[in-house]
Write a structure and sequence with these properties.
Helix content is 41%, strand content 11%. It is an alpha/beta fold.
């Protein structure tokens, strides 16, 4: 498995969900745009796309601030929850991204521990996890488990504790700059996959030691 030069092979892997394992980024964007329209807050697709993967309350606040709207904490919570409800209504047919199922199966076959760490609320996760066709439910750390979601490191550190490994012995795989920033803050080497709304250059600048076009590239060749 992939490691930075001179580093040990990872003891565990931690994955983002939306845009990394499943093709749900566009659904997320549409849900947020509909939500902002409901609340009368001007928002562009480009602005929302750049923020996908970060804490939803933070996303709501940043977009509102750009529209000269100052939101109270309870308002950002309400907007985040509504965006999640709309997303759940829209997310009826999520699909695994290339290499996702095969990579997770390879980790299971090699008895390498892994988990999912996502900023999503708990009720938004199940449809996407079912799409991965796993033999058993994995460890999932979601936005409900922590006070601060990505780009804060809390989700990743929580996942490492659940897996029983040091952050530095883990690898975090994500598709957004928020994923990379969270991994850097957690002291966890990060791999960026160009399957969301961030480019390879943006992922590398945010802290990825490696970027790949799809997860297929992380599957080790069979001997």
């Amino acid at each position: 498995m992939t490691s930075p030069a001179g580093a040990e092979e990872p003891a565990a892997w931690i994955f983002d969900l939306d845009g990394t394992l499943v093709n749900t980024v566009e659904t997320r964007i549409v849900a947020w745009l509909r939500t902002f329209e409901e609340f009368g807050i001007p928002a562009t697709r480009a602005a929302v796309a750049k923020l996908i993967g970060s804490d939803g309350r933070r996303l709501a606040s940043v977009v509102a601030e750009a529209a000269d709207r100052d939101l109270a904490p309870e308002a950002t919570e309400e907007i985040d929850r509504r965006a999640g409800d709309i997303y759940s209504e829209l997310n009826t047919d999520p699909r695994p991204l290339p290499g996702a199922v095969e990579l997770l199966q390879t980790l299971d076959e090699s008895q390498v521990r892994w988990a999912i760490a996502t900023s999503s609320r708990r009720e938004q996760v199940d449809a996407s996890v079912r799409a991965l066709r796993l033999s058993s439910r994995p460890i999932i750390i979601d936005g409900s488990n922590v006070e601060r979601a990505k780009p804060a490191p809390d989700l990743l550190l929580f996942a490492a504790r659940q897996l029983g490994v040091e952050p530095s012995r883990s690898r975090y795989v994500g598709d957004s700059v928020w994923d990379m920033q969270a991994a850097v803050a957690a002291g966890m080497p990060a791999i960026g996959v160009v399957s969301g709304s961030a480019s390879a250059a943006e992922l590398a600048e945010a802290g990825a030691f490696l970027t790949v076009k799809e997860l297929t590239e992380l599957i080790p060749p069979k001997p």
